[in-house]
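Entry 14. Ran structure prediction on the chain below.
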Amino acid sequence: MYYLVKTEYVGINCGEDRYVDTRRIEIRMSPACDFDGEVCVDESCGEIAGWATRGIGAYQKIENAREAIERIFGDTRQVSYAEYDPSMEAGQVIEAYKPGRFTPLTRQETEVWAWDGLDIDITEATTVEDIAVLVQEYESAANTNCGFTLHPELEISMKERQQELGGDP
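Output, structure tokens:
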């Protein structure tokens, strides 16, 4: 059997940049278990220190587990489990995924990535409509050229930059 398990940070600080890409979906050889060791195949396993684990289902074939990931989560990107939890018992996680087609950047990473463009594209005369178009253009460039998705507060950063230059809010 192949088991799908979702883990994500839901703690008090979940809005902080360090938790921007913590959600993961795993195909495991064994099911998730709660604190008492009870198997959680299709239910919540609980939360510890802000980390929630949920069993998503059991599948006879790995292909069925992959199809379920696509059906439930949509676009995902496969990742190496060792990148984020080398303590997991070897062989238990067969494949690991992160939701979303692109790797999300934090607000600070987005500002660094966009800095040169902000300096060129944002002026005192830049309008709200211009900023909306720029956000779409920057997002498209980040997706296509780098495999990133920018932080949702890019528009706020652009408006702040425009106001710094003396433009209308």
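The beta strands are 2-9, 24-28, 32-33, 39-40, 44-48, 51-59, 76-79, 93-99, 103-104, 148-149. Will compare against last week's run tomorrow.
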